[in-house]
Amino acid sequence: MANVETIFQGEHEQVCFFTDPVSGLKSIVAIHNTQLGPALGGCRMWKYDSTEQAVEDVLRLSKGMTYKAAVAGLNLGGGKAVIIADPKKDKSEALFRSFGSFVDCLGGRYITAEDVGTDVNDMEYIFMETNNVVGVAETHGGSGDPSPWTAKGVLEGIRACVEHRLKKSELKGLSVAVQGTGNVGRHLVDLFAANGMKVFICDIDRKRCEQIAEAHSGKVSVVSPDEIYDLDVDIFCPSALGAVLNEKTIPRLKCEIVAGSANNQLANPECGDELFKRKILYAPDYAINAGGLMNVSIELEGYDERRANRMIRNIYYCMGAILGHSAQENLPEYRCADRVAEKRIAEISRIKGRYKGQAKPTFQGRVVRR
Ligand code: NAD
Fold first, then answer.
1. 294 CA → ligand 1 middle, Å
2. Does domain 147-330 have CATH number 3.30.40.10?
């Protein structure tokens, strides 16, 4: 369990506790690493059982954001916020504006966004107090719901996995099992069906699954949340909860590829080793689900949908590089993703430091980016 000592022994740059008796706000912002740029990460609102639990969550999540932004090629660091409150009962204008004014006092070192328990309406209140927020409504120059972009990115990552493992350039005819048909999952189902894949879905909300299957006129099959692990499919696509790849579920999998949007899919690193040993390709979650982060990050420079599409295509190349590295070094994919992130942070930090306080060299050529 996290305590103050954990913070001092850890690698986070800054951890701030904010309280406001007027609005009832109790929140923590953790800035893990700003070597690549300001820390960006969502604000989670959750009824934690203890402050220690909230600290542990914000430390873990903010570190994850550092790796996600680094692998995605973004000039952003990793941070996250938590508000200790019940999202069903405790939301108010004062609470989010109070949180917004605290975010503002960090002077742009941390930029907030939606996460579990918060939505675009909450971001609007935060936006009244600070510019350091993304994921605001389209009418305010924002990019709105990130889920369709996360789904697009997952599709790009899956294309790379299929090429690498199944040696196929098309998804048509392949089968996929989608676990969770929420905001991202339902967009994934549409994309998979549009690409001619055979789609199986499950959700603890069975009615939602049946509505989706009906909308796809029977081309999508509904299974139970437990059955999903046993299906003989090409791809298992976790898009609900974390820790679904564990000692109990991995032996049941018959797929060649695991690739989905859920965060923290591996119950522990050894589960990533076990998948590798069983020759099941695992697309590292933070690399494949970065589409939503990429999309909101564009708001910082003025939102442009064409830029978002171009950036999200990079998930295909990034995944290809991770899989190539994994094959070459005979290393589990999750470890290769960590290496890519750490290498980029180290290299870019060195480059930035080199010219600190000096005139930067004039670039003479043309910048060509994929
Ligand atoms: P969501 O809450 O809208 O959807 C999750 C769905 O999973 C719900 O429909 C829920 O009923 C279902 N579910 C819960 N437990 C289940 C179980 N045991 N079996 C089957 N279904 C179950 O969430 P979302 O925004 O679609 O996100 C899905 C995952 O992707 C999460 O892990 C999230 O952290 C991650 N993610 C989301 C985004 C985004 O843009 N929304 C970005 C990156 C990562």
1. 18
2. no
